[in-house]
Design goal:
The protein is built from four helices and six strands. With about 120 residues, the protein is an alpha+beta fold. The radius of gyration is 14 Å and the shape is globular.
Length: about 120
């Protein structure tokens, strides 16, 4: 299920569209992001949950067979070995919906994005 054409007022409303098991995964993902980026604010951008510090750090979205995680391109390059078992593209990662989320890896990528974002904001 892609939901980009739908307007959501907040992340809670986005999460509420899905079954309890998917909501649990989304909440785990949300908490991992918040732990790695405690200063980030939650928003909806391009119809997806997003976390923003100076700029958007990461997005995520639910699809039929995966949760798309969008940390931008640099973390995908930086963590390519750890991401080898997932389908990736330039700025996206597909976490299979029927497998546990790699929350430690998510936290590492979000921390990387926070550092990247902070550095860009200082320039």
């Amino acid at each position: 299920m892609t939901t980009i054409n739908h307007q959501f007022k907040d992340i809670n409303q986005y999460h509420s569209l899905f079954s309890a098991d998917i909501q649990k995964k989304l909440e785990q993902l949300r908490q991992a992001i918040k732990q790695a980026a405690p200063q980030a604010t939650e928003t909806i951008s391009y119809g997806m949950p997003a976390f923003k510090q100076n700029r958007v750090l990461v997005y995520y979205a639910v699809y039929t067979k995966h949760i798309g995680f969008y940390p931008t391109a640099n973390p995908i390059v930086q963590f390519k070995d750890e991401l080898a078992k997932y389908k990736t593209s330039k700025g996206a990662i597909q976490f299979p919906i029927d497998q546990p989320l790699p929350l430690t890896l998510v936290k590492k990528m979000v921390t990387f994005r926070v550092l990247e974002d902070t550095k860009k904001a200082k320039q």
